[in-house]
Amino acid sequence: MERAEIYVKNLERALETLKLADSRAREVAELAEAYLRDSKHYLSRGDVITSIAAASYAEGLLDALRLLGYAEFAWSRPSEIEKNYKKVLIAGTFELLHPGHISYMEQAWRLGRVVAVVSRDVNAAKIKGRSIAIPAENRARVVSSIYYVHKARIGYEDDMLRVVEEEKPDVVLLGANQPFDERPLAEKLRRRGVEAQILRANPYDCDLCSTTKIINKILETFCESSRRI
Fold this sequence. Notes:
Blueprint: H1 2-16, E1 19-20, H2 26-44, H3 48-67, E2 71-72, H4 78-83, E3 87-92, H5 99-109, E4 113-118, H6 121-128, H7 136-144, E5 151-154, H8 162-167, E6 171-174, H9 182-191, E7 197-200, H10 211-222
């Protein structure tokens, strides 16, 4: 899985910096972009071999354009990308996934390899002020299947920073609305030997970017006598 992710990152960088010297090369470049989309698709389904194969086709097309003098782009060896990979930690309840969650994960993915910490049921219930319908094991399973997430694990009940201490991330990306102050958190982690950069994700607004809103919408849509929470 890691190797396929590295190839995808490399291709994305190449296509972002691609400059065509001949308009006739546009069709070939678009074909390389299509192979990259295929590579991402198969990677999201866990088919690593097909993902790498599609990425290899894209690489071959881009290399051919460059060798023929039709294109210029920035290219890195997979080993160089792997060496510079940052570990990025995110955390949340992730009870009912919505576009806000996906945006959070994507922002983390653009910073490096993502480790998602899923809160335990008892901790999530304290934060939400209600019972949690989906067990932590199920939530972690769903989160781990998201393309942007390298690994998902369940946090600890008694010490939420223990998992951060174990993972030792380079970056901790806080959710846009998570109630933590960056500086005090950085200091607490530093005392535990974790020198991580603390960043905050940009907000993502949509009509149903809230688990509570989703639940209420379901009740409104499917229950004659809906009870809002």
